[in-house]
Specification:
Layout lengths: L21 H4 L9 E3 L7 E3 L5 E8 L7 E7 L5 E8 L19 H9 L8 H16 L7 E6 L2 E10 L2 E6 L5 E8 L6 E5 L13 E2 H5 L18 H4 L4
Parallel strand pairs: 6-10
Antiparallel strand pairs: 1-11, 2-10, 3-4, 4-5, 5-9, 6-7, 7-8, 8-9
């Protein structure tokens, strides 16, 4: 089961991806990809340049203050980290940055995607509902999660982390402009180093409109690692009477 989409479009009829201008201007006209997101004007974070491996644009919405997700996977393929920049303007003042199943950025859904094994038992819908309820319970108390130290643009900040199954979900609320969320597997959340990015390392320029091509251009290896079998933490949720 997939808990999230790659991106959302306001209206597929109005925003046709790769809209072919030759339909309007004749057969010699240039084919111009339609944008799925406008230029982004807020600060976006990714892993420091020393990260060795694949980098890609994971997801973006079609709004100027869209949450942005950037993917990272080691060259060995054993570890990966998603980094989400979630502008505070996306949320109401009373909203929790992780609360609500469909909250901006869908961080919890992305986390469940990462820990979901390739091999799932029957009655997967029931399993999914149990995991969703469990995640909602944990997110409701995220302010009690253990603290870890991060480095953001050479400044020490703290993040709260939830370890579950084969991965972890962490959030930093110390930055004034955005919440920064990281989802990892195969690596620890401690001492994560984040830097501001213009998008170049991810094959995109955030100061210009973003098209479907920016997401499609990533290689087949540019995906988060996932377990082959259910982690022991998931086993109680597989029991029919859980």
């Amino acid at each position: 089961m997939c808990w999230t989409g790659v991106f959302r479009l306001a209206d597929a009829n109005e925003r046709q991806i790769g809209h072919d201008k030759t339909m309007e201007n004749g057969p010699t006209a240039e084919r111009i990809p339609a944008p799925v997101a406008p230029p982004l004007t807020f600060t976006i974070y990714g892993l420091e340049p020393s990260w060795d491996g694949q980098r890609w644009l994971e997801a973006v919405d079609n709004t100027p203050n869209s949450p942005v997700w950037l993917g990272h996977r080691t060259s060995t393929g054993e570890a990966g980290v998603l980094v989400g920049t979630l502008p505070r303007t996306t949320f109401k003042s009373t909203d929790s940055p992780l609360g609500g199943w469909r909250s901006p950025g869908m961080a919890v859904g992305r986390f469940l995607d990462v820990i979901e094994p390739f091999t799932l038992p029957e009655r997967r819908d029931e399993l999914g509902e149990r995991l969703r309820r469990h995640a909602d319970e944990q997110v409701a108390i995220f302010s009690t999660w253990p603290l870890v130290s991060w480095n953001v643009e050479a400044q020490h900040v703290e993040a709260r982390v939830w370890h579950f199954a084969s991965g972890w979900l962490a959030i930093c609320t110390n930055l004034s402009e955005s919440y920064v969320v990281a989802i990892g597997t195969g690596t620890a959340p401690d001492d994560l180093c984040l830097t501001i990015t213009s998008g170049a390392e991810y094959g995109v320029d955030f100061s210009r409109p973003i098209t479907l091509g920016h997401i499609q251009q990533r290689s087949e290896a540019a995906v988060m690692p996932r377990p082959n079998q259910p982690h022991p933490d998931l086993l109680p949720f597989l029991l029919p009477n859980f």
